[in-house]
């Protein structure tokens, strides 16, 4: 099994479920497009059942459910087992023997998905009942040039209390790449519904980077338009302590710059938008300069990486910053 995945006993019955059947009823209602919900579970035993129950309550009647637990150290895996048995569900449930991280698990879910659309979902959020139905309808009407539908999420704290949103939410549709790069357009990642065929054109999530969303969205927005759904779709849980926050803090700003350079170098191959290319190159220079002005070991790694990819102007300029850092040590 790739990545040390363990097929648990409870999976045996679920693997017998035929493709194209709703995970709750085992039925395939008419000609509706199948939607895959891919659940990433890791150490959220206090939230997992509420999150999974919100999937049961989706009004859309044709959903494939795939759950991967990424080697949780708490009781989440057992709770998921019990939840599947309780509701006699037709789903796929995998347990990783080793922790792979969000990016690799996301790629596994995408590779396994049979749906025309896919929604990646973490077990600390709540999906609102009409999310899938509304977003499928929007993307079906929009057509193949639209690869993603997003929405504005509601927010709650760790105890489930509502958090008022004091920031103005800017709505963008169509070509959003430049707006995204200028940070004029942003959304909470879990509110998305993605056309699964998008991954064949722009690739999977980049497993070289710690946080996968920026890298993937720049590629997606380079090739596809997006639609907005005027329905909150999700209640996003704001947490003080989370695996992602812990990973970011552990790996520091230097790793952030390293990952952004990798992402930008890849994104430049996907977009033909000259304004976007200019923004990306400017950001690449800023990130490499940031590494140059510290004692980061990532600087030389990224310097030679860019030179090997045919980028010369940015590395040469950054060397001046590195010399300044070394002279002032």
Question: What series of H and E elements makes up the topology?
Answer: EHEHEHEHEEHEEHEHHEEHHHH
CATH class of the largest domain: Alpha Beta
Query: Share of helix among residues?
Result: 40-55%
Number of domains: 2
Strand order of the largest sheet: 1-4-3-2-5-9-7-10
Number of helices: 12
CATH architecture of the largest domain: Alpha-Beta Complex
Q: Please tell me the overall pLDDT.
A: 89
First-last Cα distance = 50 Å
What's the count of strands? 11
CATH superfamily of the largest domain: Spore Coat Polysaccharide Biosynthesis Protein SpsA, Chain A
Unreliable stretches: 1-18
* Major β-sheet profile: 8 strands, mixed
- Using the coordinates shown, work out and report the CATH topology of the largest domain: Spore Coat Polysaccharide Biosynthesis Protein SpsA, Chain A
Strand residue percentage:
15-25%
Structural class: alpha/beta
What is the CA-atom radius of gyration, in angstroms?
A: 21 Å
Shape: globular
Features:
single chain, alpha/beta, Spore Coat Polysaccharide Biosynthesis Protein SpsA, Chain A, 2 domains, eight-stranded mixed β-sheet, 43% helix, globular, disordered N terminus
